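the two lines:
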Amino acid sequence: MRHNWWKIVSVILLLYTFTAGFLTPVPDLGNLHQSIRNLYFHVPMWSAMMTLFSVSVFNAVRYLRTPDPRYDLLSSRYAGTGMLFSLLGLVTGMIWARYSWGEFWSNDPKQLGTAIAILIYLAYGVLRNSITDLDKRGRVSAVYNIFAYCILFPTIFILPRMVQSLHPGGQGVEGNPGLGGDNLDPIMARVFFPAMIGWSLLAVWIATLQVRYSVLHEKVLNHDA
Amino acid sequence: MPHPTKIIHLLKKDILLELRQQYALYGILLYVASTIFVLYMAMGKPDAEVWNGLFWMIQLFICVNAVAKSFLQDSKERMLYFYNIAGPVDFILSKLLYNVIIMLVMSFCSLLIFCLLLGTPMQNAGLYIGITCLGGLSLSLVFTLLAAIASKARQQAALLAILGFPLIIPQIMLLVRLSRAAFGEVFRAGATWKIAGLLVGLDVMIVLLSIILFPFLWKD
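prediction for all of em together
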């Protein structure tokens, strides 16, 4: 119980999100109408993804300092789960875009950022598969993980800047407060922040399950189980 | 920790090898010329936007080939020799410098051939040359570190492309937007310098990351 309290918190927060998310009143903004409720599902995918990638890179750094295979396993499984959540974020975003912007893909900076993140971590997976020596694999994928993470962050900050600040009379991002996140209605904030925390905790839970599964898999492979 | 003399020596070694063997340099020049020629046959003389986009795509492919040839041709025995005579920081800095020089030369040549065959729609030639240099520098820095990573795996050249293309997207986007300034497009005041500053900042970060991370790759 001492170790699992956060899982219970995550379930409670998510149940709260699902019920309150659909029952509380929401501001009616532009052409969003009720679809603004997607804010509780789509944006937390981002926070979950970033949490997972951050844990992954933290473990990569730990692996480079002490080459314990545990850190390598943690780093790779967290990156894999992070990619799952980035795919989910992309899909929920595309569904939302279809109904509010008219098309699935509209060259929005956040969509581009997610696509780039998916490509980067897919390449990470390919790199891991192409090295057979276990120590070398851990080291090289840790180096790539750190490098990719350091480039990913500027990308996510550069892309919005690209669309907004270049052309004097330019549009920038369509004034969708769901994307900006700055001017968040207090009614929505009451459900939004618990949703962010709940989804992030769920993501970490899924990642820990992945790690446990991998550890068992390795034990079976080494005939330790 | 880095010794400038060692770096210069390693750099001189690479350049001498290049001048004598002339294998990589002419190989890449031929690749540049053929690619641009095929592009010309396919596109004719495109207008400014298309020209710009095509130019940066060609730069990307040239960079991948140039860096792959330069980094991945050292055999294991030679790497062991370098491991004994120089430290990892010196080695990676000399490789970075070498690839930057090669890429600058290639960028110039490709710009010349591009202008010759596909026309010169740019208005401010000097600015475009400067942006090309900055672009070549940025691309070669990223791909050098990635080549160092890819050299540890099998299927090295393919892996270099797979690893590199997602990571190079922000820089390519910045370069394409920045080079629109040379086509006479009006930017908000200070935006050009902001973009150039972002690019330089990214390059500095990549060099620092290379210096920090390469010793871990070196340990083989």
